[in-house]
Amino acid sequence: KYGTLKSMSEQNLVDCxxxxxxxxxxxxxxxxxxxxxxxxxxxxxxxxxxTAQDDTCTYDASQSFTSISSYVETPSGDEIAxxxxxxxxxxxxxxIDAGQGSFxxxxx
Length: 108
What we know:
The structure is a single chain. Strands 1-2 form a two-stranded antiparallel sheet. It has one domain: Cathepsin B, Chain A (Alpha-Beta Complex), CATH 3.90.70.10. It is mainly alpha-helical.
């Protein structure tokens, strides 16, 4: 529904996007998540809540509330390209390197 913000299920991607190359709680890439959503759709957060652990995929296509048809990538570090993507394409995702041990102590 236009004008209504609904949260997509992170857990749906954690549990189910292994087929597209993601590795559950061990990480993955936005483009792999997008490939999964293009092929399958995605459930909402309220229907497939986050559990903070890998689990068996219980995706129910009848509960899928949205899908995407494509995505674009912007060059790393290009703020103008990022601005244009937000303006012309819509929502964006970012990656954070959480591989450093100190990242687990981050708070804020």
